[in-house]
């Protein structure tokens, strides 16, 4: 069983890091205000103010910030400001032993998937796949904000996860499944294959989401996971949002048909259109927690 980090408390100091792409100086102020709106005390680490093209500072600086965020007893949580690209580059530079000894609330998604995998699989603690401060927490819809804060500020099991009003998942493959939740951004998961950080789906519930990818690239990524045995090994599949595809945001049969064609042979229960990932409203998911879902009730529960 993976460790669930201690919940945050009002006025806790939390580290803000940019493990991937940079944010503008104007966005830094919005990020700080986002954290303050949660009644937390934000501390910007040095890499947040740096930019090297599509990266927020050098690999060494970004890794140094993340290592400090976990090593320092000052910080009770770690918030990634945004995704973009770059998190996988710093994986070999992380002090995983120190991070393992200091589990903390860790929040992010998209490119941050690479870090979720490392912390779940190699450091043994649960992490939060949820909105980042650059999305401006002050303007989040009430559903997304509640989903985030209720999980960060309590160690109680969230139980059955609510679906946003008017947004219910659809059944791709009927059945029920139970296992530890793993996954994240589809492209990032594929990029871990063959590395020490490769996703392990054995007896787990696999969550996938993506944005801005045409159907053939989604096909290619799903096929790579299939060839690597990831659908064979998992117990069930939760498909999140797949936004900005060439399938009108998944509203036509093309994307669902692609999923069914690739996943059906594995006979694993699967739900589609989970509101999590590059979308609003959005669920915050506790990666590394044990979950159960059944396609009859459409309920997803954290055990």
From TrEMBL:
The residue ranges of the LD-carboxypeptidase N-terminal domain are 14-130
> What Pfam families does the annotation carry?
Peptidase_S66, Peptidase_S66C
From what organism does this protein derive? Zhenpiania hominis
Task: Specify the LD-carboxypeptidase C-terminal domain's residue ranges.
Answer: 178-291
Q: What is this protein called?
A: LD-carboxypeptidase
Query: What family is this protein classified in?
Result: Belongs to the peptidase S66 family.
Q: GO MF terms on file?
A: carboxypeptidase activity; serine-type peptidase activity
State if Hydrolase is listed as a keyword.
yes
PANTHER family documented for this protein: MURAMOYLTETRAPEPTIDE CARBOXYPEPTIDASE, MUREIN TETRAPEPTIDE CARBOXYPEPTIDASE
Q: Where is the active site?
A: 110, 209, 278
Q: Name one GO biological process term.
A: proteolysis
| Top-level taxon in the UniProt lineage | Bacteria
Annotated keywords: Carboxypeptidase, Hydrolase, Protease, Serine protease
């Amino acid at each position: 069983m993976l460790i669930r980090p201690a919940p945050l408390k009002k006025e806790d100091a939390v580290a803000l890091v940019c493990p991937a792409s940079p944010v503008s100086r104007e966005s830094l102020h919005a990020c700080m205000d986002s954290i303050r709106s949660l009644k937390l005390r934000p501390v910007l680490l040095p890499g947040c103010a740096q930019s090297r093209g599509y990266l927020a500072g050098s690999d060494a600086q970004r890794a140094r910030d993340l290592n400090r965020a976990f090593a320092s007893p000052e910080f009770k949580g770690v918030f990634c400001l945004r995704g973009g690209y770059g998190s996988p580059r710093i994986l070999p530079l992380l002090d995983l032993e120190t991070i393992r000894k200091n589990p903390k609330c860790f929040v992010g998604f998209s490119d941050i998937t690479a870090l979720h995998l490392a912390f779940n699989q190699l450091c043994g603690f649960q992490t939060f796949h949820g909105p980042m401060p650059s999305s401006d927490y002050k303007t989040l819809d009430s559903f997304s904000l509640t989903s985030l804060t209720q999980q960060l500020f309590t160690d109680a099991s969230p139980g059955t996860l609510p679906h946003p009003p008017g947004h219910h998942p659809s059944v791709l493959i009927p059945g029920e499944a139970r296992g530890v939740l793993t996954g994240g951004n589809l492209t990032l998961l594929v990029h871990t294959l063959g590395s020490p950080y490769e996703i392990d789906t054995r007896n787990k519930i696999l969550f996938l989401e993506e944005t801005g990818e045409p159907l053939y690239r989604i096909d290619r990524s799903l096929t790579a996971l299939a060839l690597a045995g990831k659908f064979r090994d998992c117990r069930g599949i939760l498909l999140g949002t797949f936004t900005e595809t060439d399938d009108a945001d998944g509203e036509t049969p093309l994307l669902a048909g692609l999923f069914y064609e690739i996943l059906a042979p594995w006979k694993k229960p699967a739900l589609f259109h989970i509101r999590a990932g590059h979308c609003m409203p959005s669920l915050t998911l506790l990666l590394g927690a044990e979950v159960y879902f059944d396609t009859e009730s459409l309920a997803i529960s954290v055990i």
